[in-house]
Amino acid sequence: MAPLESSTFSRLFRRATAGLIISGLLGVAIGMVVPAQADPTEEYAIKQDAFDAHRKARVFTSVNQVLAVLRAQPASASQRCLESIKQMHEARHQAAEIAEDPHSGHTELAQDVADSATEDALAICGADAHAACPGSAGNPALVAACASLPPTPPPPAEDGMEY
Predict the structure, then answer these.
(1) Are 82 and 49 within 8 A, CB to CB?
(2) Span 22-31, pLDDT tens digits
(3) What does the DSSP 8-state code read for residue 160?
(4) Torsion of CA 101, 107, 109, 111, to 10 degrees
(5) CB neighbours of 137 closer than 8 A, spacing ≥ 6?
(6) To 10 degrees, the CA torsion angle through 149, 155, 161, 163?
(7) Statement: residue 5 has pLDDT above 80
(8) pLDDT tens, residue by residue, 125-141
(9) Distances, alpha carbon 80 to alpha carbons 128, 129, 163, in Å
């Protein structure tokens, strides 16, 4: 048998090597590749954001329902309710100002404070609104507003701390 020319040998070597590489890649591609999965922390964050957005929308809807009752029966709003509404508006205003500042690192904290003030106003004023509803028979606007009230949440503690 005659010795192989170097060009023939290199051609055969390249074909054999290419065949091994291709078969190896196919083996990896078919049998060993794990399907891509979303990062669990990213997936959790997306679900948490959706939950938070739904919760905030529900709280704002509830606040508006409570305020509708208190607009129909203004004498039912206690001083504590009026103060909590004032604090809610101030916290919302401050959160909006902080959110506009591109250098502020406190946007999330300000939003949390505003959300907390809104939930406090809902709890405090919600109790006043529910107390106004039993005597609403003579006022059609009050009857309609009372019909849409959310269930009464427990009021926050006097010192603002929840236990």
Answers:
(1) no
(2) 544 444 444 4
(3) S
(4) 110
(5) 143
(6) -110
(7) no
(8) 999 999 998 877 788 88
(9) 10, 13, 20
User: Side-chain half-sphere of 49: how many Cα atoms within 13 Å?
Assistant: 7
Q: What backbone phi and psi angles, to 5 degrees, belong to 121?
A: -60, -40
Q: Are 107 and 99 in contact (CB under 8 A)?
A: yes
DSSP strand E in 16-151: where? none
With CA atoms as reference, report the closest residue to 162 among 119, 105, 133, 130. 119
Report pLDDT digits (tens) over 97-106: 988 887 878 8
Q: Strands (DSSP E) along the chain, which ranges? A: none
Work out the number of other CB atoms within 10 angstroms of the CB of residue 99.
Answer: 15
Closest CA to 63 of 144, 115, 121, 113: 121
Q: Please, are residues 81 and 128 in contact by the beta-carbon 8 Å criterion? A: yes
143-159 average pLDDT score: 72
Q: Which two tokens stand for residue 89?
A: 């508006």
- Locate tokens 């959300």: which residue? 115
Task: Take residue 152 and report the two structure tokens written for it.
Answer: 């009464």
Please tell me the predicted confidence (pLDDT) of residue 159: 52
User: Which tokens is 130 given?
Assistant: 């529910």
